[in-house]
């Protein structure tokens, strides 16, 4: 049931991770993350790399594992979460939505960046990160390397505060390589009548 409420984007499992794929995934570190001990210690996880190397899939596999460990999980694409927060701010549900986000054990913030955040988005991200700091944890996936996140946040003071809380206790997976989607056989076009 927890996996259904998590609304994970992919039906991925840790048992199905392909360690042979040429993407720089450290098998021993990932297996350490599958123990869910890092979750109990409230560490964050940052997964970066180019498009198609499996960032979202790995995050969802870990999210599914957390669900099996009886933890609550919420998956959000970053752009859609910021849109939902803007709508909630406009109709008076903002505090309630922030409370819901703060309550889950694991927040997966998928596909963060590369656009510079607006002032409202910066404040939203600060609220989310502050609510979760040393209490709950976050998995962030991004095509943008962590050393460029400061620029994406935009405001130096908020960037310092957000990244200090998000990055200092985080495990990092930095994937490389070509898109794994290229390995899948192309679907034949349907015949036109």
UniProtKB/TrEMBL annotation:
SUPFAM superfamilies: P-loop containing nucleoside triphosphate hydrolases. InterPro entries: AAA+_ATPase (IPR003593), IstB (IPR047661), IstB_ATP-bd (IPR002611), P-loop_NTPase (IPR027417). Pfam families: IstB_IS21. It comes from the Bacteria. GO terms for biological process: DNA replication. Residues 41-174 form the AAA+ ATPase domain. GO terms for molecular function: ATP binding. Belongs to the IS21/IS1162 putative ATP-binding protein family. This is AAA+ ATPase domain-containing protein.
């Amino acid at each position: 049931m927890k996996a259904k409420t998590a609304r994970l984007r992919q039906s991925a499992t840790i048992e199905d991770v392909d360690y042979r794929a040429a993407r720089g995934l450290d098998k021993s570190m990932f297996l350490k993350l599958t123990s869910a001990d890092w979750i109990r210690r409230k560490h964050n996880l940052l997964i970066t790399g180019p498009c198609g190397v499996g960032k979202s899939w790995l995050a969802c596999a870990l999210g599914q594992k957390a669900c099996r460990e009886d933890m609550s999980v919420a998956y959000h694409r970053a752009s859609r979460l910021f849109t939902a927060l803007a709508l909630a701010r406009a109709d008076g549900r903002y505090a309630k939505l922030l409370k819901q986000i703060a309550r889950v054990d694991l927040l997966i913030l998928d596909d963060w960046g590369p656009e510079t955040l607006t002032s409202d988005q910066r404040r939203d991200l600060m609220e989310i990160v502050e609510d979760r700091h040393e209490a709950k944890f976050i998995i962030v996936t991004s095509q943008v390397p962590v050393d460029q996140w400061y620029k994406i946040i935009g405001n130096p003071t908020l960037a310092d505060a957000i990244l200090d809380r998000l990055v200092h206790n985080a495990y990092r997976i930095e994937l490389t390589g070509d898109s794994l989607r290229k390995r899948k056989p192309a679907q034949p076009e349907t015949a036109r009548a």
